[in-house]
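DM from R.C. (forwarded with permission)

"hey, sorry to bug you on a friday — could you get me a structure for this? deadline for the figure draft is monday and I only need the backbone to look sensible"
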Amino acid sequence: MEFTRRELVGGALASLALPTIGYANSDLEFTQAIILENLEKSIWLSTNTAAKRAVYVMAAPWCPFCHQLYEAQAAIEHDLDFRFVYMSFRRFGNAVANAYFSDRQDQVGLFYENPNEKNNALSDKSAAFIDEVNTVAGHIMAPAVGSHISGSGGSSSGQSFAYPTVVFMDSQSRLQAMLGAWNSLDYLISESGTATSPEADPGRYSDLVRSPPVRRGVNRNHFAKVKGTYLYSAPRLDAPKVDVLEEGSGYFFEYSAEVDGEQWIGTAPFNNYAGLSWGKKADFFTQ
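My reply, with the result:
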């Protein structure tokens, strides 16, 4: 059997010494299409749910420059939805989760009105789930996003992009990633060719956010049955893709969970961070 990113040594897992916000190695090629697709499939808050075009903002709720970008775009007339893919929540997760369930056209504005808001119908686990889905996908594909970046400014993410980084497909069907971007709004508004997609509605995560997967320990090696077996940042086939395995290659999976009657297994791509890369158990075998 072949192990990639992590190897079994003496019956115990020897993981890479990655920092909390470090990114794991991945065998998936993060093409322009996959980067955009992953952001569409993340859990984001809208600034304009009625817009026909969108840009994706890799953001952190504590970042003052993300707030600055929000205020700058809110001050002008335009037809874009700035979809904030918040990650690395710190203490602001409950307010992000509250805004996620809002029917307001500007959910991001609701968050900034009271970043300490808490929805008593949601647990801390709900906020943590949103954070994990976005942070795992965002930080694993950070180097690929970084290769498309232009501009300057923002709060360091600790990796190859900064908060906020605005990602979009331009009118020539080229992926662009802009740091800061509050000084480039005219260009964004005129050049963004990223049409909104009904299939990317983050509301499809609602049930999982309300009741995050219950993890159970599995602690076994699992191997892909076929070439091209994907891992995702959430236990859904329409979640962001974060890795791909060859036939017979595998990882040490720490957890399992049942979601909508199906079994999923999760492996931790980062040290000291609870987010997982998830695979459908039926796609793997074990010994």
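R.C.: lifesaver. Helices lie at 32-40, 64-74, 93-100, 107-113, 124-140, 142-146, 185-191, 206-210.
me: no worries. The chain has a mean pLDDT of 88.
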